[in-house]
Amino acid sequence: MTNDTKYKIIAFDLDGTLVDDNKELLPSTLSSVMEIQRMGIKVVLATGRPTYGSKVLAQKLQLPEYGGYVISYNGGKITSCADGHILARHTIPLELIPQVKKIVDEERMVLLTYRRNEIITEQPDHPLVQTESWVNGGMPITGVEDLVADVTKEPFKMAVLGEAEEVRSIKAKLEQRFGGALNFFISHENFLEIAPYKVDKGSALDFLLRDLEIKHEELIAVGDNYNDLGMLEIAGLGVAMANASEAIKRTADYVTTSNTTNGIQRLINKFILYPEPVDRSVDVEALNALTRGTLMEALGIKCTLLEEGYVEATMPVDRRTRQPMGILHGGASLALAETLAGYGSTYLLKPDEIQVGMQVSGNHIKAAHEGDVVQAKARIIHRGKSTHVWNIDIYTEMGQLVATVRVVNSILRRR
């Protein structure tokens, strides 16, 4: 089976996303993920879990056979499943551990970390520590008397466990103290993850994409919680589960059903296996008819071509657009450029988006005289989730450059 979609790689968060509430793969999830791998799409497990906690799922999904990847410890470690090669690793400096532990002890909360294939903590019997072991497939727990003394190798990640209100409170305190040295994520209301500075799933995926020479627009990222925010923001298609936090849903391009109701199968069917055909053809005559009574009609602007990322239009130099001395008015050139950028961005919008002009700047190169008809050509040079940047060149009928204009459009969600 071949991959006829534009997507080449898909990254899944695990808990609350790829697995159900019992930490198991739904049959529909397993079959869907296997099918896209047979198409040649790479699969990445991007999780806050240690690498140990991802092994069973990686094996069930046959990631070693299909050349998948595991991003563990919230981006601290990237592993190739095909050969076990570690592509990147980031760790917490040992000298910060006593300082973190001091604050955690003052708040009477639980601190743990990971060493190879075991959990290290001073409170091995705490229920939340036991839950962490269960989440990670029965990962062994080693109780120690002095965590600081026992951890002699820089860890990939640490975690603070407690009641939801306590977790939120200590996150604020730790961020104030270590904001420029460590990263903090609440991946569950009882679980605060501590990662090396500037390490998160988004930065790890960005590194992997560059290593694989895959574009961001060819990535789908799927998640449900705050530690997934970075990877949804960089993905060509960011997907939130129905059980996701509201912040994740607002960031996502699409919200699928929940992790217990075939949400993964639904998104894979919709965007990869059985995508709905989209008619992107544009009748420019119909488009021009819509401009009656507007500034575009007043200036004589006519769209002649509208495609994905490219627009052309014409405008006469006459009494409507000229200066008193008979040459094209610079303001008319800017209006022409903004019109093309607006058409182009509108063509690219999703159904729940609108575009608003944010900035325009132009350089006037040569005069166009009354009687001429100028032609403008617009090309998109940046297509982000929140902004589109267009470059518009305006020419005389003889092909001489009149002006070059840069337009920035803001992309907003409908309310």
Describe this structure in words.
By secondary structure, the protein is α/β, with parallel strands linked by helices. The chain is 30% helix and 29% strand. The chain is built from 14 helices and 20 strands. The strands form 3 sheets. An 8-stranded mixed β-sheet has the order 5-4-3-2-1-12-13-14. Strands 8-7-6-9-11-10 form a 6-stranded mixed β-sheet, sandwiched between helices. Helix 1 (27-38) packs parallel to helix 11. The longest helix is centred in the last third of the chain and has 19 residues, at 330-348. It is elongated.
Summarize this structure briefly.
This protein has 415 residues and is α/β, with parallel strands linked by helices. The protein has 14 helices and 20 strands. A hairpin with a 4-residue loop joins strand 3 and strand 4.
Topology:
Layout: E1 9-12, H1 27-38, E2 42-46, H2 55-60, H3 63-66, E3 69-72, E4 77-80, E5 86-89, H4 97-106, E6 110-115, E7 118-121, H5 127-135, E8 141-143, H6 147-150, E9 158-161, H7 164-178, E10 182-188, E11 191-196, H8 201-212, E12 219-223, H9 229-234, E13 237-240, H10 246-251, E14 254-255, H11 263-273, H12 284-289, H13 295-299, E15 302-307, E16 310-316, H14 330-348, E17 353-364, E18 373-383, E19 387-395, E20 401-413
Parallel strand pairs: 1-2, 1-12, 2-3, 7-8, 12-13, 13-14
Antiparallel strand pairs: 3-4, 4-5, 6-7, 6-9, 9-11, 10-11, 15-16, 16-18, 17-20, 18-19, 19-20
